[in-house]
Amino acid sequence: MRVAALVGAVWVFLLLFAGQAAAHPLGELSVNHASALRVSPDAVRVLFVADLAEVPSVPALATIDGRGRPAYGAEHCATYAAALELSLDGERVPLAVTGSTVFVLPGNEGLRTVRLECRLSTSDTLAVAGHRLDYADHAERDRVGWREVTAVGDRTRLTGSTVPRRSATDLLARYPDGDPERVDTASFGVEAGGGAAAEQVPAAPTAGDAGYAGLPAVLGVLLAAALGAGHALTPGHGKTLMALYLTGTRGSLRDAVVVGASVTATHTIGVFVLAALVSVSALTAPDAVYPWLGLGHGTLIALLGVALLIRARRRHGHGHGHGHGHGHAHGHGNRRFGGLVGFGIAGGLVPSPSALLVLLGAQATGRSAYGVVFVLAYGVGMAVCLSAVGWLLARGGDRLAGADGRLGWVGRNLPVLAPVVIVGSGVFLAVRSIPALSG
Q1: Is 343 helix (H, G, I), strand (E, B) or coil?
Q2: Within a 13 Å sphere around the CA of 302, how many CA atoms are in the beta-carbon half?
Q3: Is 122 left (phi over 0), alpha (psi -120 to 50) or beta?
Q4: pLDDT tens readout for residues 17-37
């Protein structure tokens, strides 16, 4: 018992350490915006900040390394300015770029991150006192990440403002815990008078950790396997659905291994494909792919659930008849194997952003082979955990079938009840991805 407790404690430690090592404050795919408005009697000035996490920084850095920071800043600030809508009494007022600064900062796993600060302004002859201003950030609205807007009066008073005066993140330098804020609009009236306001200066952003790329190889591989196992236990990988599938088909340990291995193979291939596309800048917005993968994930699960339900109803209608020949059994075995692999592929369609991050980080530090080994170890840990959980829960379903009362009824009818739950869950997962697609 002491040995088991020690192993469990070490395993928990590895999972916690692994989870912290690869974590960006809002995720490795996030693109975060902050807009600080400073309203003077004759002009509106906007300090717009875009903070790119590790993965979206990869294609940005390719442009910066090739064309230089000034060219990148001028071009992207102009793009952002066109997507920022400032209106005076309902009529749009253009924002011109007056300056830009590009920062390249150390991120997690040996990668770098990009922070762009754009200084924008209206003309110096815009009379705003006695009028109403509205502001909206329409840039990159389909990207995940933090969004905030602040507004302060400079020798003016802002009335009925819908946004605070000061940034909760020091303009994306430090992110608070909790869910990301999504404020991209502001509205307020402007009155003459009031004191002068100091220009808000962003705080120095915090750097990321060294991550796995700086760890000894053996320790890094062990942590990769632990992180893969922990990833398998997080919501979204269909462990319960996999257990229901195995229970509904009276699954064995072999079946659990087939599903777990299929999930892992699909998941690992997806990580390599995404990393390749990001590295060659063919995929500048990898987070936009995930909703489509989620839609496919849910749709395939629902279809497999329908097929399983049809098969269960047919078997129930035939009363588990006898006298089936060898050819029929052979065909049934092929269909079963195909169903197990199909369910595994559906479960592994959404690759882990953490594994993607580490693979890109290893490439960036010239340790591509290490990154490949890491992802493979990550997959092995996930496969072992998924197979074990699926088999244990399926065995629990067998024991449930032998119970008395309502529990026994549920256990005996799981071959029909399980596909119904699988279909409903697949539909839910697919529908949940639709709002992100319409972004």
Answers
A1: helix
A2: 14
A3: beta
A4: 444 433 445 677 789 999 999
Nearest Cα residue to 117 out of 166, 170, 66 = 170
Report how far residue 334's alpha carbon sits from residue 341's, in angstroms, rounded to the nearest whole number.
11
Element (H or E) spanning 188, and its range? strand 185-192
Phi-psi region of 366 (alpha: psi -120 to 50; beta: other; left: phi over 0): left
Region 375-397: mean pLDDT is 73
CA distance 46 to 84: 10
Amino acid at the residue 341: V
Question: 207 vs 112, 212, 223, 324, 400, CA distance in Å?
Answer: 9, 16, 22, 66, 52
Cα separation, 290 vs 346, whole angstroms = 14
Of 386, 109, 359, nearest to 231 by C-alpha is 386
Q: What is the pLDDT of residues 272-312, one digit of tens each?
A: 887 777 766 655 566 667 777 778 877 887 887 787 778 77
pTM: predicted TM-score of the whole model, two decimal places: 0.63
Instruction: Provide the phi-psi class of 110: left if phi over 0, else alpha when psi is between -120 and 50, else beta.
Output: left
- For the record, the structure tokens of 158 come out as 């802002």
3-class SS at 342?
Answer: helix
Residues present in the chain in total: 439
Cα torsion angle, 294, 298, 303, 304, sign: positive
- What counts of helices (H) and strands (E) characterise the chain? 12, 10
Report residue 423 CA to chain centroid gap: 24
Distance CA(270)–CA(185), nearest Å, equals: 36
Q: Which tokens in the block code for residue 166? A: 């000061």
* Terminal CA-CA length for the chain: 52
Residue 330 has pLDDT above 80, yes or no: no
Q: State both tokens at 137.
A: 């950030």
Pairing of strands 185-192, 156-159: antiparallel
Instruction: Report the C-alpha gap between 53 and 30 in whole angstroms.
Output: 5
Contact 143, 31 (CB under 8 A): yes
In order of 27, 169, 224, 348, the CA distances from 231 in angstroms are: 15, 29, 10, 12
Beta bridge partners of 92: 87
- What values do phi and psi take at 401, rounded to 5? -65, -25
CA angle at residue 204 from 202 to 209, to 5 degrees?
Answer: 140
Q: How far apart are CA 73 and CA 380, in angstroms?
A: 42
